[in-house]
Amino acid sequence: xxDITEPHVVGRRTPRVDGVDKLTGxxxxxxxxxxxxxxxxxxxPASIAHGTLESLTLDAARAMPGVVDILHHGHFPDLHRSPNxxxxxxxxxxxxxxxxxDRIHYHGQYIALVVAETFAQARAAAFRVEARxxxxxxxxxxxxxxxxxxxxxxxxxRGEPELAFGIAPVILDETYTMAAESHLPLEPHATLAEWRxxxxxxxxxxxxxxxFYQRNALARIFDxxxxxxxxxxxxxxxxxxxxxxxxxxxxATVAAARMLGxxxxxxxxxxxxxxxxxxxxxxxQRIRLGAELDGTLASIQHDxxxxxxSVDRYVDACGGATPSAYACDSVATRxxxxxxxxxxxxxxxxPGEASGVFALESAIDELAVALDMDPLALRLKNYAHRDPxxxxxxxxxxxxxxxxSAAERFGWASRDPAIGSxxxxxxxxxxxxxxxxxxxxxxxxxAEVTLRADGSVVAACxxxxxxxxxxxxxxxTVAELTGVPVERVEVRLGETRLPAxxxxxxxxxxxxxLPAVAAATREALAALKEVATGPGGHFAGLAPAALDVEAGTxxxxxxxxxxxxxxxxxxLSGVTGEGSAAPGDERREFSFRSFGAHFVEVRWDPGISRLxxxxxxxxxxxxxxxxxxxxxxxxxxxxxxxxxxxxxxxLDYDPRxxxxxxxxxxxxxxxxxxxxxxxxxxxxDYPDYRFNEFGARGIGEIGLTGIAAAIANAVxxxxxxxxxxxxxxxxxxx
Amino acid sequence: xxxxxxxxxDSVARAVEHRQAEPGSAFVAGGTTLLDLVKLDVxxxxxxxxxxxxxxxxxxxxxxxxxxxxxxxxxxxxxxxxDVLADHPLLSQAIxxxxxxxxxxxxxxxxxxxxxxxxxxxxxxxxxxNKREPGSGCDARHGVNRMHAVLGGSRECVAVHPSDxxxxxxxxxxxxxxxxxxxxxxxxxxxxxxxxxTTPHLEHDLDDELIVAVTxxxxxxxxxxxxxxxxxxxxxxxxxxSAGAMLSLDExxxxxxxxxLGGVATKPWRCREAEALLAGKRxxxxxxxxxxxxxxxxxxxLAHNAFKIPLARxxxxxxxxxxxxxxxxxxx
Lengths: 734, 332
Hints:
The structure holds two protein chains of two kinds. Chain A is α+β, with helices and mostly antiparallel strands. Chain A is built from 17 helices and 31 strands. In chain A, 58% of the residues are buried. By secondary structure, chain B is of the alpha+beta class. Chain B is built from eleven helices and twelve strands. In chain B, the strands form three sheets. Chain B has a five-stranded antiparallel β-sheet. A four-stranded antiparallel β-sheet of chain B has the order 9-10-11-12. A three-stranded parallel β-sheet of chain B has the order 1-3-2, covered by helices on one side. The longest helix of chain B has 24 residues, at 308-331. The N and C termini of chain B lie far apart (57 Å). The chains are: A alpha+beta, B alpha+beta.
């Protein structure tokens, strides 16, 4: 790559370019944004999970100070449903429009939106709205309370898995369950809607992972041309998947702003954020393994059931990683969904696979115990050197290196496999491990880069930075190709006025956006070279191809001119390049995935039933890390989230009526600092140039896969108890 | 949140007058319970009386050597007070096992005595709760009740008293000074919190009064103490079961023992029968286990919390063991 200048910025540990803005409060998160004359919306949640809304009594609420209006079924505009198409870019999280009818499908569903002059006034009035319901029999409180196996939505088969299972000398047939989990982003969902130009133009600030999806969906719902809708999301206080697609609060808020002729902002309170904007659905998975006596896998069958709501059909595909996980000729996965009276679930960090890998990697550990084999050796025994699902070569796979390196740093060789054998005072040490994996994908992306008269550069792309560091890696990419320092690169993201960028999801942003940014940067440099070699230019008469780019200058024949000088001589404010990138034919030749290994040590004090994760050692193969400091941060965060999944997190629905009773950040437990173990993350550096020119695959999700299994496997080693239900609460081990 | 009147009291007498003038009023000190519950519409005071300006912020040693703690001494200041650390380490240990640094910096001694249950049905204005709305029923009894009480519950209420500090006070023994319209009176800490019975909304023995001080009983000597708190996560988490233990040792034999439980009962739970059983016994696992059996003899599990009985037993045995070990170290 001749146009990459030294020293490298891509691949270097780079402090976040937006760090100071975040630290000083300049970063404009949606919840902080204010407009002149703005009103505040506060939704009123249904207090039942299944039935109809019989009546609303609004007099007391309407009489409260500052109340402007109360929207509800019967007092809400006729809108259109979004077609909900991923392909057309108008997918939404819940197709049903707010206040569409009087049906109640889940606890917390909005029955009204109070709009008032201040947030406190709106909230006070919301508490005074009185609702009468008709609660219906037949409430579905969750899959744990039901034998219903739901409806099959997907299946995959290769070979003869049932036959192979039937004749295998060693078999395993176990069921694994996981409670529903909440995303709990620091910034709750929020919408600020403003109509302009006699309601012909709509500007929406939203805490979203996909400004273009929301723009297109709003255009459909409010029947506007997409170009008359603008969605802005400069900063989002994380999402973990529940801000990918629009939720009903945004529709209600936009409608309120149009009805009232003033901007309206709705910030969901934590309780409602947890009730109405998605969660990882609960799952029940059955794994059947058949193996030869030497550990060779003969059959893998993975049957999954996940919950969806009664208003939508969300599929959390647990078996996604299974067909390519191990070299095994006979594999089947089946996915079913069951409709329950909870809010609609949605993707949550490593959707489907985080649950699926827990079940599969627990089962592999159980098989190792049954075979009296080291679980690491069993994994290497069945190592998939090619992708067994598609029969293709991997673009770049170094899982073996991950397993070996992490094992060595962890000290796996000195583990005594006998249960409860490693004591330390009152405590017993347990050690377990599991593999991690996540697919590598790309989405189409466009970008625009302008070299400006003052020597700075601006790069623009309509993707988002969801807190992972996208601003920084875009700046690094431009700096790499231009030699302009990172501090002089301005990055604009999170607006639909910018060139169309992808959702921030699926760990695809890096691999999708950077090639487009690079293409646009090269176009801008080409434009500058044209100018410089044209009449009156610094390099007049030379061929543009004869010029080199170095440190913000063009050079040839021992002469150089910096970008600003060139632009000044031609009285130009700047030159702009547009670029785009999309996945190509590489998928016909190669399979693309990321890989990793987690080794976990738990400490179990049987005298007081206390279990804590003491140590996690991980090695992750994600190709090239563009910004290793941010990449490592993603894996560390995912490990902490995995400890939550393994030991703490679960949404509690009342078994009588499906009301969600722990919708707050105290009763829904996530790890706190004191729960965090010593974490040692290694990022292997094997650039995957078959995937893109930067060799980067993506890092947001993979760290979460496998952690819960490694914890459960360590718990077994410490206690002798095989826990197949997450979270592993202390009463299970008592 | 509903609007309320706000008054700032500049003397204890004025605070009590404000309160008496308006029956729906509430005192606010650190606000760590009240403000949360007002925002959830669970508490709806018509007037909030700010008592933070009152001169109740010191820990003094009385002529008889007991410690008298002003009601506005923060949890943080109390936990690190040198006299508390010297005389009553159990109190410090229990306070520091609770909440977070930020909450402890705001929360006060009097407020901690008044803190309300974490029962999710109490905190959900749409649920049935006899404590929040007398006569409405108890959704916890047949709902999700993993966190609920196995001791001291009634048909009407099984909500746990959430305080760690109060477990230590129960073990140590204390006298509360209350100031009301008719002047000051003193009551035994053991009688301050009420069992729910048929009136779970009446939580304290208070009659338009303000707590002004907590006076601690004299310490046992030589003393070993331990507070063992068992919970789902390592910090910022209420107890599933906790035990506060104090022991004095005479050679290998237990002189006097004190034991109180948290996380399992509807009020801070002193285990007097278990204490009596321990006195004069050899400080060993058999004695600790026997004490735990006695302490939990009356425990009544609900659908999801039966594990709290063996868990509390573990907390008791470990706390007594650690207290005995420390008493032994102290003696040598």
